[in-house]
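Write out the 3D structure for:
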Amino acid sequence: MPHSNMSQDIDIDDLAFIQNFLKDRVAAALLGEIAPEVTLTELGIDSLMFVELIFEFEDKTGIIVPADIPPPQTVGELLQQLNDIRSQQATKSMTM
C-alpha cells in the first residue's frame, strides 16, 4: 500500500523500538497493528506511557528529546519527530 514521503524518513530501528516498548504494555493483538497511520490512542498509549517511551528512547540512543515537542497523534508522527530530533542533534554535533 503506498504511503506518503514520510515513509521514506521512517527509521526501521525506531519502529522496532516502539514495537519492543509496547510488547509488554499492550495486548498482543495490537502489536500487529503498529503502522504509521495508527493513532497512539488506538495502541493504548496515554500521556504517561508516552513519557516512558521517550525516556527509554533517550536511554537507548543517547539522544535528548526536547520537553516541548508537541504530542504526536500517530505512530508516523512519532517516528517523524524522533527522526527529526536525531537529525537535528547529529547536525549540532557536526558543527561543534
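The helical segments are 6-9, 12-22, 28-31, 47-61, 75-95.
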